[in-house]
Amino acid sequence: MARSILTIDDLSNEEIEAIFELADDFLTELGTPGRPYRIQGRKDVAGQFILSTLFFEPSTRTRFSFESAMLRLGGNILSSANPTSTSASKGESLADTVRVIENYADLIVIRHPREGAARVASEYTDIPVINAGDGGHEHPTQTLCDLYTLRRENKSLKDLNVLLCGDLKHGRTIHSLVYALARFGARIMPLAGKGLDLPEHVRNRLKREYGCIPRELPSNGFPVDVVYQTPEKDHQLALIPDVDLDLRMKFAKPLGSIDVCYVTRLQVERMGDEASKKDYPIVDRQFLNEHRYKHSSVLHPLPRVDELGYDMDADSRGVYFKQASYGVPVRMALLAALMKLYPNIVTAQNRERPYPIYTSVDGIRCGNNQCITNDPQEKRYLKPKFWIVDETALLRCTYCEHELHPQAVGSTSAKKFDTNLGRWATIDAGHLVFFEREVDAHRGGFQPYKGKPKQTAGTPVHR
Ligand code: NCD
Which residue, 95, 212, 396, 408, has fewest beta-carbon neighbours within 10 Å? Predict the structure, then answer.
């Protein structure tokens, strides 16, 4: 399988640094005089390559900057900007679409309304797939642009105070960004609109993989509802228990200045009737009047609607148009790396997650309605797949990364089940089955195990 970029975790910190160094080189070589964030002209290095941009959702910056990047590398593009322009609108599956396109192009950039769509695409093709936004899940290349902008603004991520404003629940740019910030050791301060906090599975993962816990601190008249404390260890955020405010204030590193204010719009297209701008933070010069914002950089993935004041355009703290412009050198570097035009930028292999995989055979499904595995057009051929992320058999969908707690685990060979989920590690992977509810095990003709699970001799079956 070719190297694909489906989530920000598909790139190591070292690979991200290498991509940024290459983007710097492109800007040095092809930068516009007086506008050091803009590429002009082109290089002739990718003449034999074709990039296909397959967009099932609207886009301005992401698609155009990918296409501009490919053209500026001297490569070629095949573009589908409109969901009705492909056979998907006739009922063709995503798997079939990419199996066809891989014969016409050398890389695919895909944007899709379903969470996990890019991973599905990557499983049905041998050419690299880049996720340009899959529903409310992730948007890893936007995060590259965000981090690169901070680098160009001379902001080192380590120990940076980053305020995240707006729709943290549905914003895919936010989800990729928080994992990256956590990995690089920045401090994250969510300032969510009402009911638009970081999703539970994102918080769980930040806690599980980076050791952070939500903290409340008052600020600005808005309820800053979560603060991640910084790391004891270099690359991790520290876990602080939810204790009373005095104690928290004692342990908390003072907020000090906010280095970055990252603003996002309300993702109305991912919401039903509940979409409302009530209690939604608006970032403008008045908001940023406090001393702590004096040296903030204000970023926004764009498009903006009402959440970012136009009065910020003339304010030197607003760097969002440069951020959009950096999309070209950053995507040039990523494309060049995946086309192997420059050695040693990214490794040949995809990064594996450290968890065993469970493929659902007997009906357990991802509980997220927006997951690609629940799409009527795609579920005909897709088997739900989960990472088993802990000893209690917490399952994480490999596509949308929502989490699921099954009620029972069983063995298809013994036709036995147990509600003690810890038994999963003793069952042979080929016979392992999880049940969403205990009653499903009974209905399937499974009998309860008697006695405690026996420890298997030697190495555990799954790890
Ligand atoms: C973002 C997206 O599509 O997720 N835009 C972008 O890619 N620059 C943010 C948004 O649409 O709000």
Answer: 95
Active site residue 63: no
What 3 state SS string does the chain have?
A: CCCCECCHHHCCHHHHHHHHHHHHHHHHHHEECCEEEEECCCCCCCCCCEEEEEECCCCCHHHHHHHHHHHHCCCEEEEECCHHHCHHHHCCCHHHHHHHHCCCCCEEEEEECCECHHHHHHHCCCCCEEEEEECCCCCHHHHHHHHHHHHHCCCCCCCCEEEEEECCCCCHHHHHHHHHHHHHCCEEEEEECCCCCCCHHHHHHHHHHHCCCCCCEEECCEEECCCCECCCCCCCCECCCCCCHHHHHHHCCCCCCCCEEEECCCCHHHCCCCCCCCCCCCECCCHHHCHHHCCCEEECCCCCCCCECHHHCCCCCECHHHHHHCHHHHHHHHHHHHCCCCCCCCCCCCCCCCCCEEECCCCCCCCCCCEHHHCCCCCCCCCCEEEECCCCCCEEECCCCCEECCCEEEECCCCEEECCHHHHHHCCHHHEEEECCHHHHHHCCCEECCCCCCCCCCCCCCC
Q: Which of 62, 173, 230, 373 is catalytic?
A: 62
pLDDT single digits (tens) 347-362: 988 888 899 999 987 6
Q: Is the pTM for the entire model greater than 0.85?
A: yes
CA of 302 to the centre of ligand 1 (A): 6
